[in-house]
Design a protein that fits this description.
The chain is of the alpha+beta class and 501 residues long. The protein has helices spanning 51-69, 109-117, 121-128, 137-146, 151-156, 165-173, 183-186, 201-207, 245-254, 309-318, 326-335, 377-399, 420-430, 442-456, 477-499; strands spanning 7-13, 17-23, 29-36, 48-49, 74-81, 86-90, 100-101, 160-164, 180-182, 192-193, 198-199, 216-218, 221-226, 238-244, 260-265, 269-275, 286-292, 297-305, 347-349, 367-369, 409-413, 434-437, 470-473. Keywords: ATP-binding, Kinase, Nucleotide-binding, Transferase.
Length: 501
């Protein structure tokens, strides 16, 4: 009896974990495996990860998932990845030039300030949709070339490869035979022209990146190559989707339906809304390519926040909570905020490596204000959780300036969304339903659905039966009115961080 190849395994390579999720033809999770990833901070504002360890962890979880379901049942692999993180490697050996520069890394802040002084920010924003900030990959790729002898000359000869994490993983999974990235990741580099969908020659000159060092760009849904020469992974499995993790989550929630705005709560947060075109005059937000589904480009309006879950982790460390076992820590994070009526006027602005959208202040640093003698651990933890909701509300407020923007529900995913108190506070603050996915692996699901579209050669509408069920937190409109005052006070606290500059 023949065996049907109907399982797609999605690799979700994030900042703190590499996860592999096997999904069947109904979109159901069969098995999942996870491997933690470490982060290094060798200097203030520098955040990096070992590119070699990223690959090793990814291969390990993929191999486990393939073994668990049976290689003969796997039809394709899909990849969702942490965005903006940049890496370079030598084409012949595959050895990294340096550690991967994390999306959180602000080591290129001075370079970015130089672009602003040269009055290039408006041009860069018009072409790429992205404000000048060290978050994005272009300045990181420039730094990587500067970090090695003759880096620019070697890149011009095609002897150095530069890319985002999707291209790095694909290169290693295919024994160097495939050097591609997808449109969503390319749109986060500040090197892509949003209108043409190609690397932009003027941006390459501004950032001094040779075209020969960059991957070719392909639709997020489609064939990228075949596995080859990877320990524990059979040769010949097609890689049928690659997409940035936040984009994958938006696709996994509602396939890009208008009004369904997505917020991913992780180490940082991405708030993304589908829009109709690449044109956007809102300086505080990024316009990006959400994905290319194999038929057409879909655009997204986005605000990126560097520290949300990371801010809670920092506060847990600082108050001694992180010393608890994980289950006890999770319990405390769920119960402590509700154990006090408010923060007693405390606000925590987690600008630990600068502020992202809608403020974009690279040199801002965090603060805790409003401290008084009555403040205890519960108030500080609540302040850290509230900070997540205020930052997301700040981005949503900026999005309302866009003529294409509508908000019928905030679709949420990521580890912190398991905190019911946090989700209800977010719904009450925004005054709209917050809809949480029943499955935490939403980025993996979104990537798998893009792969499914290509494997089965179906339309987007055909994928609707695969969408997950959501749990809805409905807003208390009376509380919504009261929380507007606290939100204004939060914004005053943010202004204090800006006055420090």
């Amino acid at each position: 009896m023949s065996i049907t190849k109907n399982i797609i395994i999605a690799l979700d390579e994030g900042t703190t974990n590499a996860k592999a999720v096997a999904l069947n033809e109904a979109g159901e999770v069969l098995v999942k495996f996870s491997q933690p990833l470490s982060i290094q901070t060798p200097r203030e504002g520098w955040v990096e990860q070992s590119g070699t360890l990223l690959v090793e962890a990814s291969v390990q979880v993929l191999a486990k998932a393939i073994e668990a379901v049976g290689a003969d049942k796997v039809s394709a692999l899909a990849i969702s990845n942490q965005r903006e993180t940049a890496i370079g490697w030598y084409r012949n050996s595959g050895a990294p030039l340096h550690a991967a520069l994390s999306w959180q890394c602000s080591r290129t802040a001075d370079f970015c300030e130089g672009l602003r002084r040269d009055n290039l920010e408006s041009k860069i924003k018009t072409v790429t949709g992205l404000p000048v900030a060290p978050l994005f990959s272009g300045s990181k790729l420039r730094w990587l070339l500067d970090s090695v002898p003759n880096g620019f000359a070697l890149a011009e000869k095609g002897e150095i490869c530069l890319g985002t994490i999707d291209s790095w993983l694909l290169w290693n999974l295919t024994a160097g035979e495939s050097f591609y990235c997808d449109y969503s990741n390319a749109s986060r580099t500040q090197l892509l022209n949003l209108v043409t969908g190609n690397w932009d020659e003027e941006m390459l000159k501004i950032f001094q990146i040779p075209r020969k060092a960059l991957p070719d760009i392909k639709p997020s849904s489609g064939l990228f190559g075949y596995t080859k020469g990877v320990n524990g992974i059979p040769d010949g499995i097609p890689v049928m989707a690659m997409v940035g993790d936040s984009h994958a989550a938006l696709f996994g929630h509602a396939l890009g339906e208008a009004g369904c705005v997505k917020a991913t709560y992780g180490t940082g947060s991405s708030v993304m809304a589908p829009v109709n075109s690449a044109q956007c005059n809102i300086q505080a937000l990024a316009t990006t390519i959400a994905w290319h589904n194999g038929e057409n480009l879909v655009y997204g309006l986005e605000g990126n926040i560097p520290h949300t879950g990371d801010a809670v982790a920092w506060m847990a460390d600082s108050t001694g909570l992180s010393e608890l076992p994980q289950d006890e820590l999770n319990h405390e994070l769920n119960t402590l905020p509700a154990s006090v009526e408010n923060t007693l006027g405390v606000y925590f602005v987690p600008a630990l490596t600068g502020l992202g959208a809608p403020w974009w202040a690279d040199n801002a640093r965090g603060l805790i204000c409003g401290l008084n003698r009555g403040v205890k651990r519960a108030h500080l933890i609540r302040a850290a959780l509230e900070a997540i909701t205020y930052q997301i509300a700040d981005v949503v407020a900026a999005m309302r300036q866009h003529p294409d923007f509508t908000l019928t529900a905030l679709m949420v995913d990521g580890g912190p969304t398991k905190n019911d108190w946090l989700m209800q506070y977010q719904a009450d603050l925004l005054g709209c339903p917050v809809m949480r996915s029943d499955i935490p692996e939403l980025s993996a699901l979104g990537a798998a659905l893009l792969a499914r579209k290509a494997v089965d050669n179906v339309t987007g509408k055909d994928l609707k039966p695969y969408l997950p069920v959501h749990y809805t937190f409905r807003p208390n409109m009376e509380r919504h009115g009261r929380l507007q005052k606290r939100w204004r006070e939060w914004q005053q606290a943010v202004e204090r961080t800006l006055y420090q500059l």
